[in-house]
Amino acid sequence: MGNEHYRKSWYWYDWANSAYVTTTATVLFTPYLTAVAESAACPDLADGEVCRTNLQVLGIGISPGSLAPFTVTVATIVSAIALIFVGAIADRSPRPARLLGAFAGVGALAACLMSLVRGTNWQLGVVLLIVATLSLGASLVVYDAILCRIASPDDRDKVSSRGWALGYLGGGLLLAVNFLMLSNPERLGLDRGGAVRVSMLMAGLWWAAFTLVPVIGMWRLRGVERPEVARTAGIVGGSLRQLASTFRELRLLPQTMLFLVAYLFFNDGIQTVIGQSSLYGQRELGFPETTMLTLFLMVQFVGIGGALLFGLLARRFGAWRCVLGGLVLWSGVVVFAFFLPEETLPPLFALGVAIGLVLGGTQALSRSLYSQLVPKNREAEFFSLYQAMERGTSWFGTLTFGIVYQLTDSYRPAIVALVVFFLIGGVLLSRVDMRQGILDAGNEVPEVV
């Protein structure tokens, strides 16, 4: 089978997992888990009041409003360690698509089980969020590494952008259905909480069902051929040896390392803005859940155009310049969010358009940009480092967001504090010498970087 067949199959995993990322991880589960946590800590809390009673987690007092961002923080710390081993194993897997299916299956199951979180059972929600986050990251290590096998250096910006665009379309379609359900839950014989749980179940089933398309389509795609000596070490022993080799090699690739550090900062900012925006809109700005769903639905479809637009701009100006420009726009987004008035729709939706335009472009081009800096036959190992800082696994940002809220009881200073991540990430990225980094990795330099 040719690369074009594998590309068409590969695109569909963005479609599959974006339903969970959009409906559950971004829009529904964070405020839902917060509400469940508040019910446990403050069972008699009236509407509009702030819960001042802390939950006890391993003997530590945690504000219910900080539980969700702190949970993402824990999930990411676990991921940062586990995904590195996943990358080493994935590069030794003879059939990467099957490994992708296994990780996605575990994540989709956890996503489906989130529909069982109700009442005061916030502990189950915490565990499932950690499992789903880790599984998503593991599946994306394999998925992103496959990009290097099915697209040439000059095509990766285009292929990566198309994948993100299809993901926004898939996530947007399911979110539209969920929006209708949450707007009129009584027509389905459900209350609001029941509609949220059914929506999360649908997202998990969507993730599982559509993952079959890339798994079956790339079933015969072979992994990296390893020398016989390396293969005799076995999956675990050989993977540990590869892992040690990866860190030794990374020290010899200063531009790749600098890009990863830059990505750590600016991607944490992006993921925290997206992951906590539903919480910010509902709790700080006073918008109902249906308004936030409408906003995210709009962001999804604007994001399709944004991803494709950035892909076209990258062919002319280079992905590196386009990502830097995107970070300037992200800084403006969080500053504008700080000044948003409560319960005023026009500025909220203007902000949504800006997010949609820049979101898909910066993420898609970051993926393809990094792929140029990765040594051949070590893609999954190096993408495991990338995925430790990818979507849904940011922890500096969520930790900052949670701490600022814990100290101020307000999400406004928490959201504007994230501008630091875009500034630091942008400065570091501006210092990356892409051409030198591509040559150091032993790769072909594209016509436009």
UniProtKB/TrEMBL annotation:
Membrane-crossing segments per the record: 67-90, 97-116, 122-143, 164-182, 194-216, 257-280, 292-313, 320-339, 345-365, 385-405, 411-429
Name the UniProt record assigns to this protein: MFS transporter
Major location (coarse): membrane
Classification via Gene3D superfamilies: MFS general substrate transporter like domains
InterPro entries: Atg22-like, ATG22/LtaA_families, MFS_trans_sf
Record keywords: Membrane, Transmembrane, Transmembrane helix, Transport
Subcellular location per the Swiss-Prot or TrEMBL entry: Endomembrane system
Pfam family, one: ATG22
Superkingdom of origin organism: Bacteria
Organism: Pedococcus aerophilus
Signal peptide: none
Membrane topology: Multi-pass membrane protein
SUPFAM superfamilies listed in its UniProt record: MFS general substrate transporter
